[in-house]
Amino acid sequence: MTQYFLSLPHDSSEEPTMENMDPAELEQLIAEVDAFNTALQETGAFLFAGGLQPPSSATTVDATSDNPTFTPGPFVKADEYLGGFWIIQADNDDDAIEWTKRASKALGSRVEVRALQDEPS
């Protein structure tokens, strides 16, 4: 089975987190995502998932020289950022896209899907 990365874009100007969401909206979102995760788990497609803190909480580390540098913030400025993800497994791209449609519906937002690269033979 191929593994797929389902990613959740967020608006960089807002940096939304669960802490700053309306509690009623958050409760509904959690219920929808829990139902989606349960469906993934029941079929064996779920590998793992996670939500990320906003880019402003990041530290960029560059240890390519003898003196590593640590820079507060993301390594790139962008209009959008990765807010969370799933790693799933599916038999083919069509099945992965079906899961992605369900994820998008559960979240009420766009979701990108890409296959992970296989190790060369």
Describe the structure.
The structure is a single chain. This protein has 121 residues and is of the alpha+beta class. Helices cover 30% and strands 32% of the residues. It has 2 helices and 6 strands. It has helices spanning 23-43, 93-107, and strands spanning 2-11, 46-51, 59-62, 69-72, 80-90, 112-115. The protein has a 4-stranded antiparallel sheet. A hairpin with a 6-residue loop joins strand 3 (59-62) and strand 4 (69-72). Helix 1 runs antiparallel to helix 2. The protein is flat. The chain starts with a strand and ends in a 6-residue tail after the last strand.
Summary keywords:
single chain, alpha+beta, flat
Beta-strand content bin: 25-35%
Rg over alpha carbons: 17 Å
Structural class: alpha+beta
Q: What is the chain-wise order of helices and strands?
A: EHEEEEHE
Largest sheet: 4 strands, antiparallel
Mean pLDDT: 91
Uncertain parts: none
Helical fraction = 25-40%
Shape: flat
Q: Count up the helices.
A: 2
First-last Cα distance: 16 Å
Number of strands: 6
Strand arrangement in the largest pleated sheet: 2-5-1-6
Concise structural overview:
With 121 residues, this protein is an alpha+beta fold. The protein is built from two helices and six strands, in the order βαββββαβ.
Task: Give the topology.
Elements: E1 2-11, H1 23-43, E2 46-51, E3 59-62, E4 69-72, E5 80-90, H2 93-107, E6 112-115
Antiparallel strand pairs: 1-5, 1-6, 2-5, 3-4
Helix pairs in contact: 1-2
